[in-house]
UniProtKB/TrEMBL annotation:
Domain PKD: 655-732, 844-921
Protein name as it appears in the record: PKD repeat-containing protein
Signal peptide: 1-25
Cofactors (names): Ca(2+)
Domain of life of the source: Bacteria
A GO CC annotation given for this chain: extracellular region
UniProt-listed GO biological process terms: proteolysis
InterPro entries: Carb-bd-like_fold, Ig-like_fold, Peptidase_C_arc/bac, PKD/Chitinase_dom, PKD_dom, PKD_dom_sf
Organism: Dokdonella immobilis
Pfam family, one: CarboxypepD_reg
Compartment(s) of residence: Secreted
GO function terms (MF aspect): carbohydrate binding; serine-type peptidase activity
Length: 1035
């Protein structure tokens, strides 16, 4: 169709005809119910104010970044499921429709604007990716994210003030439960039908996986308490997504079976803390051939109780279906599909439960080919060859349902490559969004769809999140990058449309929330974002997503609303005074309605503002006073209310009785407060441990620097302001926890969050001081500090890496006591600890090296020695301005000639020595592969490595003028990751290319490579064997 001479309105009509309201004619069919019933699960009450729970340790720049659970890739059912690349499909015309709107806004521009109010920035948590999620209630915001100490959640009020957290999910789980081990992937949902919170995380282990669920007892997530339920899954519950419905909480995941899986949880009993009836597991929907990672996405309810789903409406599960990726030559080249299923739950007779296949929804052709159909990270970003993962395989978080009265609506979105080719590596990432509607008892149909991909072909939009307000307005959040000038690093933005706007276009344009400033090189990105609508007005959108500033990723929570939704309500005030019986004003009295509070001024006056029409109960409070009346019921009806006065009487107060018990283990003393107050409660505590350190915790532990007897004082203050103190003598000793130079302590063990502690006295003249942990199972973290015991936040050395192999070398040892702590990041056993040092004079090293040359390439081998130590560092000067610090470097000279090469070596005690040799290179000669030296076309086979270990480092010299450089890894079993770096050996954090996909098929390509030596290593994400490596280029 030629659109050049059409009017915008005519084009809009032409493009939308055939998009709206069409479904396949197939009737509903029941998939074999295939329900598997587990065991009932009892609730565990968590009656704690989250402000009293320890806060998860903050990640700081310079600390290591751990990797979150890796999305699982399972081999597809059959190999060649994709349609041939030459098979032509109908074009995706939707980006053109969006561009027509953007270029012709003037006569159609919506008479609205978006309004933003609150923006909350959250820093990096030491894990990649963050998986950020958010939801809101009338009074609270809960933000969930992966963290270095486990998945965490933080609670804010609606102004963005932190109320509690970050709190690890696992810290709320009962002792001994598998959910005490955090995996990743937080889920945060506010149940708008019950005014409660639903939280979930992956817990346990790959062999004993669990769905760890927390349901709030009240609408107050801070102090209202929680119910814990831990449900076992038969295999790793990868990438869970959940939805709230009136009869169940339904969650889906990626388990890699022949069918996709869904779980239903007993919402009714879980809201009441009753024993949850057995979870129902559904594995009856066949997975799509051709994808190694896939899952259904459940719809989740958004709205208020007056717009709950009709009783006849069952919860929907959905996925997108690019049949060119799944159906081979039988693919329908004129359209793609959204596959729909409904889930029916019978809690009394589970055999009646089942999943029903609904008529699938035809949609405009889209393209899920992002370089191929399997690689995760594929979207370009400026300034780096590292790529971002658009999560092409699923409908992204969340699939949002609304009952809008005259119709029901579902909105969702997923990734598409706007470049239509189903071959090659060109990616132009966009977001396909859609709205489905159902009227009465009819079928779900497509109301509208669009592809949001504004900008040139080097501009990318990915990782969307979508929701609808009570007017039917739609908001879409997303990341965007741009590799052409002016470049855009991974940034966060949103767009939207009003319900009355022309179908298929986002009319709000691009709205930047926060801009990125650097490339993300971890290979992991996003996974979950979330958009929710504030139940207090059912208009304000709240979203969260990641962006990439300098340093490391951050997240941003942002609210905004369309000005046509929810006219600003009129608000009023309630005022009065609080005074003594003689009329003297009492200052500092808190007067609260339960959700709004204020304090009296110096005259005893108060005013509560911004109150809507309604009934309120006012309650005054101040320690040491009673009030008459104890509360007042006040109705606001279109006017301010005054004269709401209270009389306060100072109460007599019996002071508290301070007391505590304690126990010791080595240098660690653990204290338990047993203080009482006969006429009130203990409001605060102050501990003095007798060594100039203090604490305000209820039941603290303290590690002393040395053995001895200490006077420990506990001072308690009650809610009436009276205090009392008690002092006791506490004796601690080294208890055998003393390290002897060079003597290994074996068999150390601790459970998650606990630690073992040692000391070591170091004399004058000690050199080469080093503390090392090794062996055993689990994950132990080493802490070392001179002069006092280290803590989570105070230490001289903390390597903080995965596993139990860590060391803390001390460059210049101090005379005195070093304190060593081994803490369980995850429970560990069988760990060994060694502290060692040397006292001797230092003989300088002897520098020496050998070399060989091939054409312009010289390869050097360091043969230096040190009679009383080791070579700590090397500095090579190749005589042409080039340098290196590698042990055995190779160097490519620009031209033939004889060069003076100098090697300077420094030993572990700081002494140096140098040697210089003449090296001659010529422009002739060829390449002979040997050992770890690769030549053009070399194939290395049979490579293997165990988990977290590397193969040898291979090198390939690429001459000037070479093109189409390629390193290909393939074959074998397990999960290998390819790393390539120019100039020196790659590491997990420093590389030129790292595809980082599941399986063993990865490629690093360079169309116009820089001349020089390329270093290649393969690391075992999981143990692998039988892998092949090929290196080639065009001379």
């Amino acid at each position: 169709m030629n659109f050049r001479n059409c009017t915008y309105a005519g084009i809009l009509l032409a493009l939308l005809l055939g998009c709206s309201g069409s479904t396949l004619a197939a009737a509903e069919t029941s998939v074999s119910n295939g329900v598997q019933v587990g065991e009932p699960v009892s609730a565990v009450g968590i009656d704690v104010d989250l402000r009293d729970v320890p806060v998860a340790a903050a990640w700081r720049p310079g600390m290591p970044i751990k990797e979150a659970h890796k999305r699982q890739f399972f081999p597809p059912d059959r190999i060649n499921t994709a349609a041939p690349s030459w098979l032509l499909t109908e074009p995706d015309r939707l980006p053109e429709l969006q561009k027509l709107w953007d270029d012709n806004k003037s006569p159609f521009t919506s008479q609205y604007r978006s309004e933003t109010r609150v923006s909350i920035n959250n820093g990096n948590t030491g894990v990649s990716p963050g998986d950020p999620v958010v939801d809101v209630s009338a009074s609270h915001i809960i933000y969930g994210v992966n963290g270095s100490s486990g998945t965490t959640f933080t609670i804010y009020n609606k102004s963005g003030t932190k109320l509690a957290g970050p709190t690890t999910f696992s810290s709320l789980a009962p002792t001994g439960d598998g959910c005490r081990t955090s995996v990743s992937d937080p889920i945060v949902l506010f149940d708008r039908l019950a005014n409660r919170w639903f939280l979930l995380e992956m817990g346990g282990s790959s062999s004993a996986a669990k769905m760890c669920i927390y349901v709030s007892k009240t609408s107050d997530p801070v102090s209202g308490g929680w119910w814990f339920y831990g449900f076992t899954t038969p295999t790793q519950n990868d990438y869970p997504h959940c939805g709230v419905w009136n009869d169940a909480y339904v969650c889906t995941d990626n388990e890699g079976q022949s069918n996709v899986t869904a779980y239903a949880y007993d919402r009714a009993n879980m809201l009441n803390g009753a024993t949850a009836r057995a979870q129902q597991r559904f594995a009856s929907v066949p997975k799509l051939a051709g994808y190694g990672f896939q899952a259904l996405t459940p719809a989740t309810f958004m709205g208020d109780t007056s717009h709950a789903p009709p009783a006849s409406t069952r919860q929907i599960l959905a996925r997108h279906n690019d049949d060119e990726a799944h159906a081979g030559t039988s693919a329908d080249t004129t359209r793609d599909f959204i596959d729909l299923y409904s889930i029916n739950i019978d809690w009394n007779t589970p055999s009646n439960s089942g999943i029903t296949t609904l008529p699938r929804i035809p949609i405009t052709e889209y393209n899920s080919w992002f370089r191929n159909y399997s690689t995760f990270a594929t979207v370009p970003q400026p300034g780096s060859t590292s790529l971002l993962d658009p999560i092409r395989e699923v409908i992204l978080n969340s699939l949002v349902y609304r009952n809008l009265g005259s119709y029901e609506s579902i909105v969702g979105q997923f990734a598409t490559n706007v470049n239509a080719a189903r071959t090659g590596t060109v990616v132009n990432a966009g977001i396909r969004w859609f709205e489905l509607r159902r009227i009465g008892s009819g079928n779900w149909t497509l109301q509208q769809e669009g592809t949001f991909a504004p900008g040139d072909t080097n501009t990318h939009h990915l990782l969307g999140t979508i929701a609808t307000d009570n007017k039917g307005n739609i908001a879409l959040g997303y990341n965007n990058t741009k590799t052409s000038s002016p470049t855009v690093y991974a940034s966060l933005g949103y767009t939207g449309r009003m319900a009355s706007d022309p179908a298929g276009v986002m009319t709000l344009g691009e709205n930047n929330v926060v801009s990125g400033a650097a490339a993300e090189t971890s290979g992991r990105w996003g996974d979950y974002y979330q958009m929710a609508v504030d139940p207090s007005d059912d208009c304000t959108f709240w979203m969260v997503g990641m962006y990439r500033p300098s340093g490391s990723w951050n997240t941003r929570i942002q609210d905004f609303k369309f000005s046509d939704c929810g006219a600003p309500p009129s608000t009023y005030s309630i005022s009065g005074t609080v005074s003594t019986g003689s009329g003297v004003g009492i200052s500092g009295v808190t007067v609260s309605t339960g959700s709004v509070s204020t304090t009296t001024n110096s005259s005893g006056a108060y005013t509560l503002t911004s109150l809507a029409n309604g009934s309120y109960t006012l309650t005054p409070s101040l320690g040491g006073y009673t009030f008459s009346p104890t509360s007042r019921s006040v109705t606001v009806s279109g006017a301010n209310v005054s004269g709401q006065n209270f009389t306060g009487t100072a109460a007599s107060n019996n002071p508290p009785v301070a007391n505590f018990s304690f126990s010791t283990s080595g240098l660690v003393a653990s204290f338990t407060d047993t203080s009482t107050d006969s006429d009130g409660s203990i409001a605060s505590r102050s501990w003095n441990f007798g060594d100039s350190t203090t604490s305000t915790a209820t039941n603290p532990s303290h590690t002393y620097a040395s053995s001895g007897t200490y006077s420990v004082t506990l001072t308690v203050t009650d809610n009436g302001g009276a205090s009392n103190a008690v002092t006791k003598s506490v004796t601690v000793s080294g208890g055998g926890n003393v390290l002897v130079n060079g003597v290994t302590v074996s068999g150390l063990a601790a459970t998650t969050g606990n630690d073992v502690n040692y000391t070591m006295d170091v004399p004058a003249g000690a050199t080469g001081l080093n503390f090392v942990i090794s062996g055993g199972t689990g994950d132990a973290d080493l802490y070392v500090k001179f002069g006092s015991a280290p803590t989570d936040t105070s230490y001289d050395c903390r390597p903080y890496s995965n596993g139990n192999s860590e060391s803390c070398p001390v460059a210049t040892a101090q005379v005195g006591t070093y304190y060593v702590r081994v803490k369980a990041y995850a429970s560990f056993t069988g760990v060994s600890l060694t502290g060692s040092y040397s006292i001797a004079s230092n003989n300088p090293p002897t520098a020496n090296f050998s070399f060989s040359s091939s054409a312009l390439v010289a390869s050097f081998t360091d043969s230096s020695s040190d009679s009383d130590g080791t070579i700590a560092s090397r500095s090579w000067n190749f005589g042409d301005g080039g340098t290196s610090t590698a042990t055995n470097p190779s160097h490519t000279y620009a031209s033939a000639g004889t060069y003076s090469v100098t090697l300077t070596v420094t030993d572990n005690d700081g002494a140096s020595n140098a040697t210089t040799k003449s090296v001659t290179v010529s422009s002739g000669g060829g390449c002979t592969p040997s050992g770890t030296v690769l030549c053009n076309g070399t194939v290395i086979t049979g490579l293997s490595a165990t988990k977290n270990n590397w193969t040898s480092t291979y090198t390939l010299v690429v001459p000037a003028g070479a093109t189409n450089l390629s390193f290909n890894m393939s074959g074998g079993t397990g999960d290998a990751d390819l790393y390539v770096r120019l100039g020196s050996a790659p590491t997990t954090s420093s590389y030129t290319c790292r595809p980082y996909t599941s399986g063993n098929t990865e490629t690093c390509s360079f169309a116009a490579p820089t001349a020089g030596t390329y270093y290649v290593r393969i690391r075992a994400y999981a143990t692998f064997s039988g892998v092949s490596l090929t290196a080639s280029y065009t001379p």
